[in-house]
Write a structure and sequence with these properties.
Structural class: alpha/beta
Oligomer: single chain
Strand content: 15-25%
Distance between the termini: 54 Å
Helix content: 25-40%
Radius of gyration: 24 Å
Order of helices and strands: HHHHEEHEEHEEHEHEHEHEHEEH
Number of strands: 12
Largest sheet: 8 strands, mixed
Shape: globular
Length: 321
């Protein structure tokens, strides 16, 4: 006869509280974790406090800007995470019913800029032949946890810590973006076309307010555009909207920095100045849960996108460590 576990610590364990613990541990912030479920912070706080009381020891170190796991919390996460990964794998394939039949649904996440101005066209082209798949393309700001955020694929910058932080997650080198400078012919006629980095110090710039793919922050640091007061010299226009920045550059306000693979730039009429200079590189990875390693739908999409992005790099995929 099967002997059931009689220890009250296990028998009376609230598994919903373990789910709350998992999300808080991964996000590092109770209010952010509660946002995944559209719940309030106090509900999640009660779950964590209740779990700690039940187990008899604290799991987190509380700080003003969030929480971090203590030693017992790390031990518990090592036990809980494989369970959640396993359940995610068990329920991983999403389907929708269209035209009276089920179709595979693939959720793919990346930055809003990559989604709108590079990969959306590729995915739409692929979908013309693979009509059995329904794609959900998600534009997000910040790093993506493919398991926590329930996506099948993420395209995002290389993160050397991702395999340590995310159990069973694969990230493969995919392609490299190189930031270039663009200006309108009207602007270049008025101010002259710079030929060297030193020439840029007397130019005008339009700049992003957001830490996105098209910001100029790294470039400005490299060419010492910062003033003694800490501000940025020669910036005549700023926006958190890429379309606004492109329009400002088209109207001759100043030079902008952006990755030249973006379709919005190819259609803008702006000229790539100093084309042999690369002011910033962004190594992008193809990231997916390990249980998709043998998934033919995921692998087929990856190979198709790999062929399309090879065009960006002169016919070769640039690997990196």
């Amino acid at each position: 006869m099967l002997t059931l576990e009689t220890s009250p610590y296990f028998r009376d364990l609230d598994w919903d509280k373990l789910k709350s613990f998992y999300y808080v541990a991964k996000v590092g912030n109770i209010s952010h974790a509660a946002g995944f479920f559209n719940l309030n912070q106090s509900s999640f706080s009660r779950d964590i406090s209740g779990l700690e009381k039940h187990l008899g020891y604290p799991l987190f170190i509380r700080r003003r800007n969030g929480v971090t796991l203590n030693r017992k919390g790390v031990e518990l996460l090592e036990i809980v995470e494989p369970i959640f990964i396993g359940m995610k794998e068990f329920t991983s394939r999403g389907y929708v019913t269209l035209d009276q039949r089920q179709k595979r649904k693939i959720r793919i996440a990346m930055s809003r800029v990559l989604a709108a101005y590079i990969f959306n066209d590729f995915i739409l082209d692929y979908n013309r032949d693979r009509t059995d798949i329904v794609f959900e393309v998600i534009g997000v700001d910040g790093a993506i946890d493919v398991v926590l955020q329930d996506v099948d694929i993420a395209i995002q910058p290389h993160d050397p810590m991702i395999e340590k932080v995310n159990c069973g997650v694969v990230q493969e080198p995919f392609f490299t973006l190189e930031k270039k400078l663009y200006a309108s012919r009207e602007y270049l006629k008025k101010y002259g076309e710079p030929q060297t980095v030193d020439d840029l110090r007397s130019q005008h710039f339009v700049r992003s307010l957001r830490s996105e793919l098209y910001s100029l922050d790294v470039m400005q640091k490299n060419i010492h555009l910062k003033s003694r007061g800490g501000g940025v010299r020669n910036v005549v226009y700023e926006s958190d909207c890429l379309e606004c920045l492109v329009e400002a550059a088209k109207q001759g306000k100043g030079i902008m920095g952006a990755y030249d693979q973006m379709t919005i730039l190819k259609n803008s009429g702006l000229k790539n100045i100093m084309p042999y200079y690369s002011f910033q590189k962004s190594h992008q990875c193809f990231v997916y849960p390990g249980y998709h390693k043998e998934d033919q739908d995921i692998l087929g999409l990856k190979e198709y996108l790999r062929k399309r992005v090879k065009v960006f790099e002169g016919g070769d995929i640039k690997g990196y460590v």
